[in-house]
Amino acid sequence: MKPYQITYNADLSLQDKENELVGKVTQQMDNAKSTGRYTTDFASIQLPFDQDYYTKTMHLLAQKKALKPAMLVVVGIGGSNLGALAIHEALNGRWYNDTNPAMRIYFADTVDTAMLTALIARMKVALEQQQEILLVVISKSGTTTETIVNFYVLLEILKQYRPDTYKDFVVAITDHNSVLFNLAQQHNYACLAIPTKVGGRYSVFSAVGIFPLALLGIDTQQLLEGARNAISDTLSAQIDNDAATTARLLYQYYQRNYIIHDHFIFFPDGESIGRWYRQLMGESIGKEYNRQGQQVRVGITPTVSIGSTDLHSVGQLYLGGPQYTFTSFLTRDYQQNLNVPNAAGALLGVPIGTVNRVMSAIEQGVQQAYKNIHKPFCHIKLSAVNEYTLGYLLQMYMMQMIYLGYLLDVNPFDQPQVELYKKETKRILHE
Question: What CATH number should be reported for the domain whose range is 4-30+223-418?
């Protein structure tokens, strides 16, 4: 069952060429699911169904949980951390560490001295108090500059405070036989492999996401159940294929010069879902060449807005500026509520009642304003924010991006231009 309602304020034309292409891509995804192997670019479809892989991940998880770590530090960038971060924050909230949980979590995702210094200070306090820290380093290639630098900086802290046992508190997640994989073997660090054909931005349901999330107590079985149902629903849909429909809308509006896709998320703890999606879209369809090797330079720029905060920062632009943005609203049903004192309603001159009533009115008001100026959008309203819902949503988005890549005639699985900055960075460091 779909854990959301989806509605559209957009025109979708049915075109035979698109129908045929969507059918072919659907068949390729279905083939990838049926083989049970990671042999094609569509390999990520297999992850939620791979019980052996999940069991191996859980086996290592049990070993590391037995060490009773009080802090988890995830060292990774891009696809190596954004998926886990998105799910964690959506479920546990951005203030999670302030609530004194059994295990705090920190993400080291850039080489910023101030950030690293603050993290090191927290690590030292924990270690001095005889608390244990699990250091999880994630890099698909095993040679990501930012990740390797951060890992070695933080590893030194573990060595300093736990010289005899630090190796027990290191886990590497990387491609089989990568430089990082071989380093882990050499130094006896625990290691989990990412299936080679699974790209970083499609890897959230591999050990990349499952291992840290399960450590935090998140129900990863429900997460994967949601992903499995999203795949099954998509592959069996004759008409109601949300991944294909949203991809076709984005494609058709791109042909009409709608070159920005804004993810407008109306719950602050969901902001990192937008950041994860931003990478998914940016790397998947921002391409210089099409699948025939012709230079085309296509792409839709993904942006993230938070409701209602950004109505007071970019709302004027969205409603009054150039109209080349397609919007995806993401909202949720709230189980919690707060009463608003009558004095607020008296001051504003309108009946208020509850905080949720205000937010609902704002959501409806924004969408009506968009309708009034014929601004296209789709609206996904989550029935709840839980593991099943997030597993379903993120899997649907990944399949949407695969469809969109093929509609735009680009490879949605590679990211060749990302290597350009990496190459220049290493050249400069050699100087």
Answer: 3.40.50.10490
